[in-house]
Design goal:
Largest sheet: 4 strands, antiparallel
Helix content: 10-25%
Low-confidence stretches: 1-18, 599-606
Oligomer: single chain
Strand order of the largest sheet: 2-3-4-6
CATH architecture of one domain: 7 Propeller
Structural class: mainly beta
CATH superfamily of one domain: YVTN repeat-like/Quinoprotein amine dehydrogenase
Mean pLDDT: 91
Number of helices: 6
Strand content: 35-45%
Radius of gyration: 32 Å
Distance between the termini: 38 Å
CATH topology of one domain: Methylamine Dehydrogenase, Chain H
Length: 820
């Protein structure tokens, strides 16, 4: 699911600013007990700590602002290897176990994660996606790592295995080891599933190179640890239908298992074992130790923190949605979930909202002084209205006072999204309960329902609607429930709520727009192009459907016939005007007085000429406008129907193209680089709205940037709390089973929410989201974090190397055919 993009750097406020205080930590990760069983290393809030195995005050070993994790003890307990992103990507570092300066061991731009020291303490084994062996048939996928070795004193890396092996534990021979495999990209925190990608425990025999699956089954078996004599493997498993618990088996008889713990509700994580037989692991965010045959004991730990929840200042960029005001003088856009308005001719910018929760879907009132949008600040979706209060304030970006209020009561807890204001400003279309389209009379507040929800197959946030220029019709994407997952175009008569499908083709028809003053609808369709590859890769065309036969026939005339028709119509109009000018002017005066009287009584003028609509046979009045299919971003047809502008990608990046449907001409107007949406003001002026804002003059075809300058303040801790609540709400509303796949969703949300004060970085927060979503036992879920400050990419020459070669230089194993 898609939510506000986050760059969470600060820490939750646990203490008053500038004061140090001992706290009991939660959400401790990467627990490793020392080889002699006396100390435990762990990660907390992005730093490595060490504590006595019996508990007490933890000692902080790393203090940089970077993220440190995955500590691994050397066999003598004097050194700790760990991963750090202090140089951008995750690299392996090593430091004294007492803390102090760390030495960088690996330098590839791929993430390199330490797994274990070799038993002689001379090397560190780590996982990374660098290169599969030249002879390997394994698909080179980023989730499938290889195993490498690097000297603990620093030096050249060497590939140990070309297949994934994590959480390895060495056998007594000092070369062979047991390990946890990785078969695919399924989230590692998914729970209770049985599939082809669940993890198993394997034994690697270094003398023969043979790999033996010790726990071959459909469920999860994780985190193996071998006893000192190599006879017993301890591991975490979800066997017996419960949560992860500690089990053991004899290496020579892996089918015979012994269960050693009996935890429920939450999983055991991060198993390790000292030579004295002491286990260490986490349960429910806390560290436990245990001796075989004894009960687990919680380790009481104190951590001294001296941190502040410092708000982060960010430069504002354009977010996911933007809209041009009817007068063309302002653009409303969202950035990091806040609504901003900037002038189109000047850089003055105003932040309209300032909430932790997200705002979206900006929509202008017809007066260009009122702005509607969706907000999540009430614990659910609601529609808010912002209004310029002072009459002498010309626009939002220069307004001194802006009044903001909810359109609907915040107490009824009903989701309402996607406001859309009619051209005359009297009505608002919106979506209620995520599936139902409704219309409100903005003066009387009376609401009418147009659709009952059966035209929408998904309970996502809702869907957009567009008013016709005459304000009598609404245009939407709809899905006949017998026709999903494909989307169709539908038109709704606002007066009676009758909906008619414009398309029903078996293809994705989407992104509809009114065109030619409401006489036609343009949309994109994949019916002629390459179909999608499961969920991506469709090539689309711009299509046009005409609402009456006359508009259709006129559009299809040849250039010559159309010019002749215009001459005839021009002559007829001139003749009619001459006749009208000779009539008694009294009728014109009476008509003017009557119109003025109606305006005085508050009646609204028609915003556009009423269009004759004949929906019967509309599928037969549908034409393809683009000559070839492509990766469309958006499109706009000029009011006269003579020029189609569209944004698409034929080569590297997106460009603005134009087509002359009557002439058949196609040409590239300008290179854009990035995709964008197209919006227009009431006068028909065109704007390109994407990561940048630009005006486009259709006469000169000149592109002019809309500059703006603004900053905003982010409370990262409050934002994380909102995002967790967002995930909880969305799953509750959208999950495919009402019983949440057997998960106690409400209580699980509360259980994970309590860890938020102990999380101050994106890595841990992504894990928290994955753990919570993993409770639902479904694929394609979890939290992801991709750092923006990644390392400089390591150069690749189009060669595959022999990464096990120890001689001078680099030995080329293969020159890639067709490579650089």
């Amino acid at each position: 699911m898609i939510i506000k993009r986050f760059f969470l750097i600060g820490a939750a406020m646990l203490v008053s600013a500038g004061m140090a205080q001992a706290v009991t930590p939660l959400w401790m990760r990467d627990v490793r007990i020392s080889p002699d069983g006396s100390q435990i290393a762990f990660t907390y809030k992005g730093d490595i700590y060490k504590v006595d195995a019996k508990g007490g005050k933890a000692e902080r070993l790393t203090t940089l602002a970077s993220y440190e994790s995955r500590p691994v003890w050397s066999p003598d307990g004097k050194q700790i290897a760990f991963a750090s992103d202090r140089n951008g990507g995750q690299d392996v570092f090593i430091m004294p176990a007492t803390g102090g300066s760390a030495t960088q061991l690996t330098f590839n731009s791929a993430n390199e994660i330490p797994e274990a020291f070799t038993p002689d303490g001379k090397s560190v084994l780590f996982s990374a996606v660098i290169q599969d062996p030249a002879e390997s048939a394994l698909f080179p996928y980023r989730a499938l790592t290889e195993v490498y070795s690097v000297p603990a004193k620093g030096g050249r890396t060497r590939q140990v295995l070309g297949t994934p092996a994590v959480y390895m534990s060495f056998m007594p021979d000092g070369r062979s080891f047991v390990y946890e495999d990785v078969k695919g990209s399924e989230d590692k925190f998914r729970k209770h599933h049985t599939s082809s990608v669940t993890r198993d425990i394997w034994l690697y025999d270094a003398s023969t190179g043979k790999h033996t699956n010790l726990t071959h089954r459909g469920g999860e078996d994780r985190n193996p640890v071998v006893s000192a004599d190599g006879s017993t493997v301890y591991f975490l498993s979800e066997r017996d239908g419960g949560s992860f618990n500690l089990y053991s088996f004899n290496v020579n008889d892996p089918a015979k298992l012994t269960r050693l713990t009996d935890f429920s509700t939450h999983p055991l994580r991060f198993l390790s074992r000292g030579s004295d037989g002491t286990f260490a692991f986490t349960y429910d965010g806390e560290i436990y130790t245990m001796r075989e045959g004894h009960k687990p004991a919680k380790v009481a730990i104190d951590v001294t923190v001296d941190e502040e929840n410092k708000p982060e200042q960010l430069r504002v960029g354009v977010g996911r949605s933007a809209a041009v005001s009817p007068d063309g003088k302002q653009v409303a856009f969202t950035s990091r979930g806040e609504v901003f308005v900037t002038a189109t001719d000047y850089p003055s910018t105003k932040q309209v909202t300032n909430t932790t929760e997200a705002e979206s879907d900006p929509a202008w009132g017809s007066d260009s002084r009122t702005l509607y949008y969706t907000s999540e600040r009430d614990g659910h979706y609601n529609i808010y209205k912002a209004t310029i209060c002072r009459e002498d304030d010309p626009n939002f970006s220069n307004a001194t006072i802006i009044n903001e209020e909810p359109v609907f009561s915040v107490k009824d807890k009903v989701d309402r999204t996607h406001p859309s204001i009619s051209p005359d400003g009297t009505k608002m279309a919106f979506v209620e309960d995520r599936t139902k389209l409704k219309v409100m009379n903005l003066k009387t507040k009376k609401v009418r329902q147009l659709t009952d929800g059966s035209t929408v197959a998904s309970r996502s946030k809702g869907f957009a609607s567009q008013w016709s220029p005459d304000g009598e019709w609404l245009l939407i994407e709809a899905t006949d429930l017998h026709h999903q997952p494909y989307s169709d175009i539908a038109i709704i008569n606002v007066a009676d709520g009758k909906m008619t499908y414009v398309t029903k083709t078996g293809y994705f028809d989407q992104n509809p727009r009114w065109a030619m003053g409401g006489k036609a609808i343009i949309f994109e369709s994949e019916r002629y192009g390459m179909r999608n590859h499961a969920s991506w890769g469709s090539e689309s065309d711009v299509m046009i459907a005409f609402l009456n036969r006359d508009a259709f026939d006129r559009f299809r005339l040849s250039e010559e016939d159309y010019e002749l028709l215009k001459e005839v119509e021009k002559a007829q109009k001139s003749k009619k005007n001459d006749a009208a000018s000779g009539k008694d002017s009294k009728k014109a005066d009476d008509a003017k007085k009557k119109a003025d009287s109606k305006k005085a009584d508050g009646d609204k003028e028609k915003v556009a000429e009423k269009v004759a609509v004949d929906l019967e046979g509309i599928a037969d009045r549908t034409i393809r406008l683009t000559p070839n299919s492509s990766a469309l971003a958006d499109m706009y047809l000029t009011p006269d129907g003579e020029t189609l502008y569209y944004i698409t990608s034929f080569e590297k990046g997106y460009d603005l193209w134009k087509a002359k449907p009557r002439k058949g001409d196609v040409s590239k107007v300008t290179k854009l680089g990035a995709g964008a949406g197209i919006d227009t003001d009431k006068a028909g002026n065109m704007y390109l709205l994407g990561s940048t804002l630009r005006k486009f003059d259709t006469k000169s075809e000149k592109l002019t940037p809309i500059t703006f300058s603004a900053s905003m303040t982010i409370d990262q801790a409050a934002e994380r709390e909102y995002m967790l609540r967002y995930v909880y709400n969305e799953e509750r509303e959208r999950f495919f089973r009402t019983d949440m796949n057997g998960a106690d969703w409400d209580n699980l949300y509360k259980a994970y929410k309590r860890f938020l004060p102990h999380i101050d970085n994106n890595y841990d927060f992504a894990d928290l989201l994955s753990e919570l979503l993993g409770e639902l036992n479904v694929s394609h879920t979890g939290g992801r974090y991709y750092p923006s400050g990644a390392a400089h990419p390591t150069a690749q020459l189009g060669l595959l190397y022999d990464l096990g070669y120890d001689g001078a230089g680099l030995k080329v194993a293969e020159v890639i055919k067709g490579g650089p």
